[in-house]
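User: Protein folding is very new to me. Would you mind checking the protein record under this note? It all follows right here:
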Amino acid sequence: MLIQYEFIILLIIDAVKILTIGSAIMGAFMGALMVERKLIGRFTGRYGPNRVGPFGLLQPVADGVKMFFKEEIVPGHVDKLVYLIAPALSLTAALLTFGVVPFGRESITLPFVETLLGFPVKLAPWVADINVGVLYLMAIGSLGTYGVVLGGWASNNKYSLLGGLRTSAQMLSYELPVGVAMLSVVLVTGTLRVREIVEFQTQYGGLFWLVFLQPVAFLIFFIGGLAEAGRAPFDLPETENELIGGFITEYGAMKFGLFQAAEFVHAMMLCTLITTIFLGGWNLPFLQQIFIFLPFLQLISPVIYLSIFLAKSILMYCVLIWVRASVPRMRFDQLMGFCWKLLLPIGLANLIITALVLAVLFF
């Protein structure tokens, strides 16, 4: 009976964590939207949003209210069920990816809860720490493709269909070099558990970041991630000058808003994965040594870890915005040729060289 009681309590704690992280991500989406519009405006010699609220900070709120109250129109020629499911599927897949991302190093013990319930309770800064976390990331990250493809097909519009076909070709192609880059990381770290990949990068004073050990894999992962997220210069599934709006041509109101949210959440997910896998996650060089010399910082170590993680992720998101403002959109044939003729061969060569070096060093 006690075991069942503990299981229910832990289940409730996990549910609260899921709701908290999900709400934080959706709030961060509004912030990311504002930052991107402001920075893109500055990069292109404009002001960006500056009318709603102080410095235009309430513009995302106004956009959300507008989307919520716009008339919901479902065209008569669409496959209604699939048409309505597709936006939610895209956003859900992007949100699920955050389930295995460690936002900090250690669990927080809650003594007052232990006193109340009669058994120890630790609050971990992650939702799940599964031993196949990398496989989970690759699998769930691919599900977002289905939402876009189904939305393009269900719209029963030639522009939407072309956008959906472009998405399927683009995202499925770039999954291969991204997967090969992740294999190189797994070879170096020897684990599929995401938390252990971060712990690996804390060795030797925190100087073992994989961006230094695997720079080629980092570049492949970054470029492939941009293509999978549909970010510029790989935003070909919804090119306005060619396909009107691509797969979102027939979408409006909150359905359009869900697709936009999925795109931004996917971009944020890419930044958090790069931070976790290649930039040391919550770690900084010699951070543990600093804690030894300044032990009072241990009291706020969870806050420090989370702040470091968020700072790295925000910096990476600014890099994504910089790329969008600086690099022109590629043609679709160039996009596919770049993947199959350049990115994938380089990734395979990097994987083979990594395996050979590890074989020489450890066998």
Remarks:
- DSSP finds 15 helices and two strands in the chain.
